[in-house]
Every structure is written in C-alpha cells, then in structure tokens.
C-alpha cells in the first residue's frame, strides 16, 4: 500500500511538472498576442512646435489602439517633393499607414498619382481623389477665413486697411482661408493688402512702416499659425507698435498665442480642436489598416475665440486639453 501511494504521488508530481513545463512554453495556455500598428505622421514643417495639442491627441489614441507613432518633420519647410519621398520611404520601411499634412496639397496630390504604395494614407486636409488615400481629417478653410473677416468687420470701421500676413498662399490651405477672408472684407468695404513672407524680416519691416515714416494705422490678419505667432511677438516686443496696429487677428492656437490673446496683443483667433484632430487621425488610420471603413472626409468645427469667451468651459476644454 505504501509503495502504491508513493507511486501515485510520484505520478501526480510528474504530471504537475509536465503541465508546468507545457504552460511555461506557451503550448497549453497561449498568451493573447497584442498587435502593434506602426503609423507614421509626416507634417509640413521643420518642427512640431505648433502641433502640441495635436500630439496630445495622437498620444492618447496611440495608447488606446496600440499604435507605434513616428512623427516626421521636413528638412525644408513646405517641400512637397521631399514630403512625398518621406511618405514612400516610411511605407517601404514597414509603416502600416501614413498620416500626411500636405505642404502643398495640389502638388502632393499630383505626385501621389504617380506612386505605387503598399499602405493606406490619411490626409490632414481635403481628401485626395486617389485610391491610396482612404480618408481625411479636414476643416472648412474658406469658412474659417469668413469667420475671421466677420469678426474684423464687426469690430472696426472701413477707414482702416486690413493687411493679410501669410507664410505663403500656396502653403497648406492658406489660399482657401484667404479667399474666405478677402471676400468678406471686400464686401464690407475694407481695403486689403496681402503680404507673403518672402524674406525673414518681411513682417517686421511692414509693421515698422506704420510708424516710420507715415504713422498710419492698420489691422493685421495672420492667416496661418506661424505668421500669427511671429507677428504677435513683434508687436509684444515694442509698445509703440500697439499705437498703430488697431487689431491683430489670426488662424490657429498654441499656448503662446492664447497667452497673447489673454494679454490683449491678439484680438481674436479662429481655432479648431487640435486634440480631436490628432486622436481621430490615429483612430481612422487603425480603421483603414483593418479595412473597416469606406473613404470618408471628417470635418472639424472651427470656433472664433476672443478674450471675452476664452475661459468658457466649452472652449477651455478644446484649447487646453488635459494630457
């Protein structure tokens, strides 16, 4: 009897050892494999300085959808050819999808038509008529310009000219914003001037011209975030400019720009929910990787923000998202 018990216990011990070995080698209890999706984001600038809130949304979605994000900047701002070369490189290197903020949309679309890609593309802007582009996260750019124009028209008389500052009308979707803004201003009776940044000091020299030698007043509308940031810095740096710039308005929002708005340097901006744009772009990238959606263009709403409504809860959540 004792021998039988010993034999039985030995058999049980052997079975337990075998089960342990089998489970530890993943032959019985298989761990669920988590798929990681490599997604590249190619922006149109040399720095991601103006993408802080967008990146917060990207990081949040990446954590939820198991996405490994590679955010890529350009060597030269606005270089569409380089941007499309980077897109091809990222896909060839294994990106399951690419999110593209086109430097020059028309040129990027033309270049894409001549490419063969192995992964889908999501555009940050108007959707391209290309089979590789499976969707876009966009906004009504012309409407944003109209909102800015209506704000200026409601707060100023037509005796003052409106100077429109931009990094370039062909950069991003600036031309559409300009079309909406200029149409409203002209209809309201304002005279306008367009100043594209051809040289480093273009904006500063133009602003200085209000003081020397003519002492003229003007309103400035900066239709891209880079221009708005630069002009706000110029005006803040010299108190005398505030006597000649009747109002600074613009497109875009960063913490720095919102601080200038709160301090009265900027009168008003048109902004979108950048956090939502970043989050949704990753969400849609994962969906197209799984082929779960037809091509679609998601439109984000824009808002006019000034000092009086800056702290409203609905806008505060949009402009100051929590990580």
From TrEMBL:
Domain of life (superkingdom): Bacteria
Main location: other
Gene Ontology molecular function: any one: carbohydrate binding
InterPro entries (UniProt xref): Bact_Solute-Bind_Prot2, Peripla_BP_I, SBP_2_dom
UniProt subcellular location: Cell envelope
Membrane-traversing stretches: none
GO cellular component, one term: outer membrane-bounded periplasmic space
Domain Periplasmic binding protein: 40-292
Family stated for the protein in its record: Belongs to the bacterial solute-binding protein 2 family.
Protein's name according to its UniProt entry: Sugar ABC transporter substrate-binding protein
């Amino acid at each position: 009897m004792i021998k039988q018990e010993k034999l039985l216990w030995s058999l049980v011990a052997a079975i337990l050892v075998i089960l342990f070995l089998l489970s530890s080698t993943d032959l019985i209890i298989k761990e669920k494999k988590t798929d990681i999706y490599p997604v590249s984001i190619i922006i149109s600038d040399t720095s991601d300085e103006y993408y802080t809130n967008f990146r917060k949304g990207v990081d949040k979605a990446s954590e939820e959808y198991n996405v490994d994000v590679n955010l890529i900047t350009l060597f030269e701002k606005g270089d569409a050819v380089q941007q499309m070369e980077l897109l091809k490189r990222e896909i060839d290197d294994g990106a399951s999808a690419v999110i593209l903020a086109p430097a020059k949309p028309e040129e990027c679309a033309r270049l894409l038509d001549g490419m063969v890609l192995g992964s889908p593309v999501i555009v940050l802007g108007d959707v391209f008529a290309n089979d590789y582009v499976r969707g876009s996260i966009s906004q009504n750019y012309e409407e944003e310009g109209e909102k800015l124009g209506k704000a200026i028209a409601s707060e100023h008389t037509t005796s003052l000219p409106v100077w429109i500052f931009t990094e370039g009308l062909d950069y991003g979707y600036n031309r559409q914003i300009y079309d909406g803004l200029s149409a409203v201003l002209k209809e309201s009776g304002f005279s306008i001037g367009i100043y594209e940044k051809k040289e480093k000091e273009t904006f500063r020299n133009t602003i200085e011209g209000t003081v020397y030698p003519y002492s003229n007043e003007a309103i400035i509308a900066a239709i891209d975030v880079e221009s708005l940031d630069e002009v706000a810095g110029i005006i803040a740096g010299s108190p005398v400019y505030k006597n000649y710039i009747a109002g600074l308005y613009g497109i875009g929002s960063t913490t720095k720009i919102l601080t200038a708005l709160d301090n009265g340097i900027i009168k008003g901006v048109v902004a979108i929910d950048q956090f939502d744009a970043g989050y949704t772009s990753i969400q849609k990238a994962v969906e197209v990787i799984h082929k779960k959606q037809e091509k679609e263009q998601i439109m984000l709403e824009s808002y006019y923000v000034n000092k009086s409504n800056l702290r409203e809860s609905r806008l505060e959540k949009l402009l100051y998202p929590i990580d």
